[in-house]
Amino acid sequence: MNVVGATELVESNSYLKRYQGEGNHVTGDSAEVMTAIYEEQINLVILQRPLSDDVEDYCQKLVDHNPNFNLRSAINHKKPSQSLKSLLPDLAGQSAFIEDLTLLLEMYTCLFDLEEVGLRLQVLDRAMCPRFHIDKLGCRLVSTYQGQGTEWLRNCDVDRSKLGTGNMGLSDEESGLYPHAASIQQVNNGAVVLLKGDGWYGNEGLGAVHRSPAVSLNEKRVVVTMDFA
Q1: pLDDT at residue 162 is higher than 70
Q2: DSSP structure class, residue 205
Q3: Whole-number mean pLDDT of the chain?
Q4: Across residues 73-100, what is the average pLDDT?
């Protein structure tokens, strides 16, 4: 996957026009789809992609050998693979996993012109953010390497007055936040999602509404997130 310069692509506008009428989200299978996050009405972008067997095998070994693994680090854009090699467990398939994670880091730093990325990689046995919410930041990248992906709501299916304390102590299912269970969307395993938050300029109150999926007994998820450092 090649990363297309965000400024160049947004200025051309020809690519983004293909997605008009899709509401607040865009889905594609090419890295250039990620630049659609710069479009004003878009607050969620999904890059669909498969994971190699080696990457999936490494994630399973990580779960087996480090079931409580939790990495937080600021990664410089210049030598990300070297930093990752020193931070990740030396298990079979490590090089393939580092290559894949480095690709995501390079796309994220290129897209937002960053010197450093705040990286978090976790093995999870519970939902970290079980309620639908909006992030109070610029734009977060999330990718689930193993397990169920992030759940989200389209703008047309969410009553934002029911977020946070507006739920009046009721669950997401009971509060009227969304009309019915079929409204809940879910990102595929391996896909990359960009979630525009309230911290994005001009986007206050309009961030992507999302939550972590419920985790079944004995289920493990391997999730990576990236933020502006």
Answers
A1: yes
A2: T
A3: 90
A4: 95
Give the domain range for residue 81: 6-228
Element containing residue 6 per DSSP (H, E)? helix 6-12
The model carries a pTM of: 0.89
176 vs 134, 152, 166, 173, CA distance in Å?
Answer: 17, 15, 10, 7
HSE on the CB side for 102, CA within 13 Å?
A: 16
Residue 29 C-beta-side C-alpha neighbours within 13 Å: 4
225 φ, ψ (degrees, to nearest 5): -130, 150
Q: Work out whether strand 44-47 and strand 25-28 pair parallel, antiparallel, or are unpaired.
A: parallel
Q: Confirm whether 10 is domain-assigned.
A: yes
Q: Which three-class secondary structure string do you get for 31-79?
A: HHHHHHHHCCCCCEEEECCCCCHHHHHHHHHHHHHCCCCEEEEEEECCC
Helices 53-65/94-112 angle, 10° precision: 100
Question: In 3D, which of 166, 167, 165, 135 has the Cα closest to residue 150?
Answer: 135
What is the CATH classification number for the domain harbouring 133?
2.60.120
Which has the closest alpha carbon to 33: 207, 194, 199, 225?
Answer: 194
Which of 130, 154, 123, 138 minimizes the C-alpha distance to 221? Answer: 123
